[in-house]
Every structure is written in structure tokens, then in C-alpha cells.
Write a structure and sequence with these properties.
InterPro entries: Diverse_Substr_Oxidored, FAD-bd_PCMH, FAD-bd_PCMH-like_sf, FAD-bd_PCMH_sub2, Mopterin_DH_FAD-bd. It holds the Pfam family FAD_binding_5. This is FAD binding domain-containing protein. This protein has 9 helices and 14 strands. Helix 2 packs antiparallel against helix 5 and helix 8 packs antiparallel against helix 9. It is globular, with a radius of gyration of 19 Å. With 275 residues, the protein is of the alpha+beta class. The longest helix has 20 residues. The chain has 3 domains: 40 residues; 119 residues, Uridine Diphospho-n-acetylenolpyruvylglucosamine Reductase, domain 3, CATH 3.30.465; 97 residues, CO dehydrogenase flavoprotein, C-terminal domain (Enolase-like, domain 1, 2-Layer Sandwich), CATH 3.30.390. Helices cover 25% and strands 26% of the residues. A hairpin with a 6-residue loop joins strand 13 and strand 14.
């Protein structure tokens, strides 16, 4: 879609682009959402791809993901064998259920900052205990837990002009065993629920991340594997207003699916299923 209110595109922003921010600006990365709907309040786009942030930076501490890393780059990345949770990368990318053209443009950071309940990059990074590095217009930076970033449907903690620069996934989370479940009403539909369970090697703990069915990511943590009743009670204890409603499912339907798939994940990890 043409954005007919735009009067300027900043093609070569400074390394710290926030200093140029003003009302009516928008950060441009993949643009797959930005150019899909009218943006009557925008006057200028600032192109972040010109900064050429490194898309993927593995190290002993874990994996750093530049916010402008495309879905295609994330999907194709080769990870060390000991990072068993890396199998979730492809599964989360496939949850987009979009064309290769979108994959080649859409960015990890863009999906996170859209902060939609069904954002699969949110699911992935929250489940793997990521930290987000945020840059403010005044040049300062802060680091936040991925779990705290999204606050509701299309809502997050970004201040005006603040930007997501980097996602850091710790090595200990990448070494965990994982199980996941995803449901949509149609084969190529948006996620109705998307759950990921992780377990530390040599332990019986459980970290269950619930997304898509909730307006914000929910994490349930257990030091030891809970029994079925305890897990169900923990899901039922979530606030009623956290469950999401749209044409893909009612809150009641999503809560039911979450109970069902959470129990499947619990049993899979107890049985020593896929790493």
C-alpha cells in the first residue's frame, strides 16, 4: 500500500538513530505490516536496514539476534548441536505461515514490536528467557526481560522513539529440552494458541510459556514437574482478562486448548520426548 502522507525517508540514519526521532516518525525495517494498512499519522520513515546490524551472533554466552534479522535468516541459521532448543527456531518461523517474500522482508524485531498475541517471535524469545536491549532517543539503553515487554494486544513498554536493538538468548536456555504445541482453526491460519515447555538438563523442572491465546505472554514456572491437576489449576488461576478473544477463538475455547496442550507437553517432557 502506498503511504501518501510520507514526505521523507531517512535512508542513512546515524548509528544511534533515536537522536533524529520526532513526532510523525516510524522505524522502517521489513515494512510488512507498515505498508499493509493506512498510516495517516506518519510523515517520515527512518530506514533501520541501512545500519546493517549483524543478524545472528553466537557466543559462549548464548545467541544475539539483531532486531533487523529477517525470518529467513533466523530459519536458516545453523546452531551448535548442544543448543537443543534450537529446533524451536524453525517451528516458530513456520508459525508465520506466510510466503517466502514475507519471510525475506519481515524481521524478528518487527514481529516482537508489533506485539500481537499470535506473534511467534514473542513466543520463541519468551520461552527461551531472552533479554531485549532497548535504545532511547537520548542515547541511553536499557535491558528488559522478554516476558515484561508485551503488555497487551498490540501494546508494549516502548516509549516514544525507543527502539528494540537486540535480542539475547542465554546459552542455558538454548541447552534445554523442549516440547511445543500450536493450534489454528485452519491449516494456514493464525495461531489460536501457541505453547512451549522447556526443561533444564538433568532436572524435572518445567517452564511453560503460553501465547496467542492470551493478550500477553504468560509463563508458568515449576521447580519440579507438576502433576496434571496442579498444572490445570495453575492455568485456571490466570486472570480472566488475560485470555484473548477474536474470530480465531473465544477465551473459553483458548483456555480449554491451553489445558489440553499443556498436559500433552507435561507428559512429553516426563517421558523424555523430543529434545
Amino acid at each position: 500500500m502506498d503511504l501518501n502522507t510520507i514526505t521523507e525517508v531517512v535512508r542513512r540514519p546515524p548509528d544511534r538513530p533515536g537522536a533524529q526521532w520526532r513526532a510523525g516518525d516510524a522505524w522502517l525495517a521489513g515494512g510488512t505490516w507498515l505498508f499493509s494498512v493506512e498510516q495517516p499519522d506518519l510523515r517520515r520513515l527512518i530506514d533501520l536496514t541501512a545500519l546493517r546490524w549483524e543478524p545472528l551472533v553466537p557466543s559462549g554466552a548464548g545467541l544475539g539476534i539483531g532486531a533487523t534479522c529477517t525470518i529467513s535468516e533466523l530459519y536458516a541459521c545453523a546452531l551448535p548441536d548442544e543448543w537443543t532448543a534450537g529446533r524451536l527456531f524453525a517451528k516458530s518461523c513456520e508459525a508465520f505461515l506466510s510466503s517466502f517474500k514475507v519471510w525475506s522482508s519481515a524481521t524478528v524485531g518487527g514481529n516482537i514490536c508489533m506485539s500481537l498475541p499470535a506473534g511467534p517471535m514473542i513466543t520463541l524469545t519468551v520461552a527461551l528467557e531472552a533479554q531485549y536491549e532497548l535504545w532511547a532517543p537520548d542515547g541511553s539503553a536499557r535491558t528488559v526481560d522478554a516476558l515484561a515487554f508485551v503488555t497487551g494486544d498490540h501494546q508494549n513498554i516502548l516509549a516514544p522513539g525507543e527502539i528494540l536493538r537486540r535480542i539475547d538468548i542465554p546459552a542455558h536456555a538454548l541447552r534445554k529440552r523442549t516440547a511445543h504445541r500450536r493450534f489454528s482453526l485452519t491449516r494456514l491460519g493464525r495461531s489460536t494458541v501457541f505453547l512451549i515447555g522447556t526443561q533444564s538438563p538433568g532436572t524435572s523442572d518445567l517452564l511453560l510459556t503460553v501465547t496467542a491465546g492470551t493478550t500477553r505472554p504468560v509463563r508458568l514456572a515449576f521447580d519440579a514437574m507438576p502433576d496434571a491437576r496442579t498444572l490445570e489449576q495453575s492455568i485456571d488461576a490466570l486472570p480472566a482478562d488475560v485470555w484473548f478473544a477474536d474470530p480465531n477463538g473465544t477465551p473459553g475455547h483458548r483456555r480449554h486448548l491451553t489445558r489440553h496442550f499443556a498436559e500433552e507437553i507435561r507428559r512429553e517432557l516426563m517421558a523424555g520426548g523430543p529434545a
